[in-house]
Write a structure and sequence with these properties.
Blueprint: E1 6-12, E2 24-26, H1 27-31, E3 40-45, H2 60-70, E4 74-79, H3 84-91, E5 114-116, E6 119-121, H4 124-136, E7 142-146, E8 155-158, E9 164-166, H5 173-183, H6 191-196, H7 205-212, H8 221-228, H9 236-255, E10 264-268, H10 275-281, E11 287-289, H11 299-312, H12 336-344, E12 349-352, E13 366-370, H13 377-386, E14 395-399, H14 403-406, E15 407-408, E16 418-422, E17 436-442, H15 448-461, E18 465-470, H16 481-490, E19 495-498, E20 501-504
Parallel strand pairs: 1-4, 4-6, 7-10, 10-11, 12-19, 14-17
Antiparallel strand pairs: 1-3, 2-3, 5-6, 7-8, 8-9, 12-13, 13-18, 14-18, 15-16, 16-17, 19-20
Helix pairs in contact: 4-11, 7-9, 12-15
């Protein structure tokens, strides 16, 4: 008996770009514009020959082609709150006629779903949760799906039996970060920038008391107006960021920790990019899993995985490096030791290898690499390459067998998802002002080429890590060799490595 074919689509505020035998289309990296539309669409297909991802568009022809090629399969979909209006406009008149009750769907457990006439629908936070849980490999786990917008939920907790508990009114942390980010000038999607300010601040009782107001009941227009009147002049943005981070962890301890039902925890949703919070969870749970595409960019994958498990009894583990493979031939072949030596000599290198990463962290296939020993390297890269705020730090990619020598944390962090204390003064280039770093641990099985490069740098310098940041400059992470060449030419990068070849200026 053949398994049900599934095509998954998510209407979201974010997207990235990966492809595979089962592929995930993320339009942002194709168009080269970040957040250029009020909504974005993503797709994940059971078979690679169903549709051409380069021709992907959400319109009547696309829907017709999908149903013809899928031949008896189903459409699985979810949405963010910001995409619901567009979802109705573009989908109700084509494939959702007779399914208007979808929008009243109310899940009670993780594997609940709306399924009728080839349409499969789950809530936004079920998609987040399924993506994290299935990719964890855990047999059972607590799951926290938390973000700023979502659907009717903002924060949900699933216990080991997959029962859903709505914490949206008790723990609207994502909503608070979004509003504070907007208030401080970083924009609605700038919470990660605000988090970069945490290390510069100190505790403010004024801010903490203001934040407490939101936890006195449901969010109202009056509360939102109150937040717009917060005094930033006297206390400053740095202290607001620090206090907000402390407030976040305090409320997590108050509302999430008492719900613990087992030793495993899965985290997903945009708030799960908060590395300080994630590190705190490792002190309360024995095992914490945070997948690479934890924001809305992973929604289509999670929706597909949910449907594939319910309909086909298949826990399909997604590939971190699931992108399209690009061939490249050059004049000069690389030697790992030569690239490592160049970095040790002060060169900043664009590193383009194989298939692109899923999610918005550079994990060693679309990376900019530099020497973490350089005290000035953060300012150099921010000024001449990334063209971003000078307070934003960079991450270390460290050989997994050495991370405990340099960082105060108790478990590997392969997806650059946790912030912990730095134990050494030998790597100032990746050490934030509060003596922390958002680490990526690298083992040979996970990414052999990247591991070998770091290992060569270790042989030369005695330091088993490299500074690793995403390969971009005020743009989505590069996807194709052409994108990499353009960014290389317009920035102060010294070398570009594409697969096995070197390009020099």
């Amino acid at each position: 008996m053949s398994k049900t074919k599934i095509f998954s689509i998510a209407l979201n505020l974010h997207d990235h770009n990966t492809y595979d035998g089962v592929w995930h289309n993320q339009r942002e990296r194709q168009t080269r514009f970040k957040h250029n539309l009020p909504y974005h669409t993503e797709a994940y297909a059971h078979q690679s020959d169903i549709l051409n991802p380069d021709d992907y568009r959400l319109n009547d022809k696309f829907v017709d082609d999908y149903f013809k090629k899928l031949d008896g399969g189903i459409l699985a979909w979810t949405y963010t709150y910001g995409g619901i209006r567009k979802a109705k406009e573009e989908l109700l008149n084509t494939i959702l006629k007779g399914h208007e009750d979808i929008f009243n769907y109310d899940p009670k457990k993780l594997w609940d779903n709306y399924y009728k006439d080839g349409i499969y629908f789950i809530d936004h936070h079920q998609s987040h949760a399924a993506y994290a849980f299935i990719n964890s490999g855990f047999e059972q786990s607590d799951i926290l799906a938390i973000d700023g917008i979502g659907s009717k939920f903002r924060c949900v907790f699933f216990d080991k039996d997959q029962n859903l508990l709505d914490l949206s009114d008790k723990l609207p942390i994502g909503w608070l970060w979004n509003h504070m980010s907007k208030l401080t000038g970083f924009g609605t999607l700038g919470a990660s920038k605000l988090m970069g300010k945490v290390g510069y601040g100190k505790y403010s009782s004024y801010y903490y008391n203001v934040f407490e107001i939101i936890f006195e009941g449901p969010i109202t227009e009056k509360k939102q107006k109150h937040f717009s009147q917060i005094d930033l002049g006297y206390h400053g943005i740095d202290d607001l960021a620090y206090t907000l981070q402390k407030f976040t962890i305090d409320k997590i301890k108050e509302y999430v920790y008492p719900l613990k039902s087992c030793d495993n925890l899965c985290l997903s949703g945009g708030v799960a990019y908060n590395g300080y919070m994630n590190e705190e969870f490792t002190k309360h749970y024995k095992n914490v899993f945070i997948p690479p595409a934890i924001g809305d960019e992973g929604q289509a994958i999670g929706t597909y995985q949910h449907a594939d498990y319910v309909l086909n009894n298949n826990k399909h583990i997604s590939n971190t490096f699931a992108g399209k493979k690009y061939e490249w031939l050059g004049d000069e072949m690389i030697k790992y030791k030569d690239v490592a030596q160049a970095i040790a000599d002060g060169k900043i290198v664009g590193w383009f290898q194989g298939k692109s990463e899923s999610g918005n962290r550079a994990l060693g296939n679309r990376s900019i690499l530099a020497d973490p020993r350089r005290k000035d390297i953060k300012d150099v890269i921010n000024d001449t390459i990334k063209k971003r705020e000078d307070f934003r730090p960079f991450a270390p990619a460290v050989l997994e067998e050495h991370y405990k020598e340099y960082f105060d944390t108790n478990s590997p962090s392969p997806y650059m998802s946790r912030i912990c204390k730095v134990k050494s003064d030998k790597v100032p280039g990746i050490t934030h002002i509060d003596n922390t770093a958002r680490i990526q641990t690298v083992n040979k099985k996970f990414n052999e080429k990247f591991y070998n490069l770091i290992n060569e740098f270790y042989k030369i310098t005695g330091i088993p890590m490299l500074l690793n940041t995403s390969f971009n400059c005020h743009e989505p992470i590069v996807e194709t060799p052409l994108h990499a060449l353009r960014t290389f030419k317009k920035t102060a990068l010294d070398m570009l490595i594409i697969n096995d070849y070197v390009i020099r200026k």
